[in-house]
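Open question from group meeting: does this chain pack into something compact, or does most of it stay loose? Before anyone orders reagents, we agreed to write out a predicted structure and look at it together. Recording both the input and the output here so the notebook holds the full record.
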Amino acid sequence: MRTVRRAPMRQRTFCAVLIAALPVTLFCSGCALQTVTSASEGAAWGPSLLPSSRDYYPSVAKEQALTGRVGLECSIDGLGHARDIVVLESAGLVLDDAAVRVFSDGSFLVPPDWSTKGGPAKRFSYGVIFRLKGKPDVAPFEDHRLTVFITGSEYEYLRQPHGGP
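Structure tokens returned:
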């Protein structure tokens, strides 16, 4: 009779959650927030930001058709929340503040042993790219860090001409 060894229940549960969450995180079509990863040797990978349906594109940025990218660095605590967020590459105050808000409000997928293995003590680089439909694409980060895309519609705040009496 052959004995089959099974992974501990905690490990199987984490794997199931990771397998279920990863496609949602990577391919959240229709969401205002998308996390996209790209493979690169030597990149320091941190936990993935879980997708949100909240619109983080600032209305003033939409009105002025502002696009850009913000480079951030932060640590992730044992509960999956960003801590000590620092802007390393600015796209201007409006987009910088919105990028920090994305990370402050968001939750990250962390393994159950994140705290015991020293995860919260590490710092990770992330990118946030704000882009509008109809505007030229913003250049990706050269170091291929985990990047969040915040999208909006270019002409949502287009003023209509007034026909008057």
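Observations to bring back to the group:
The two ends are 92 Å apart (CA to CA).
Residues 9-26 form the longest helix (18 residues).
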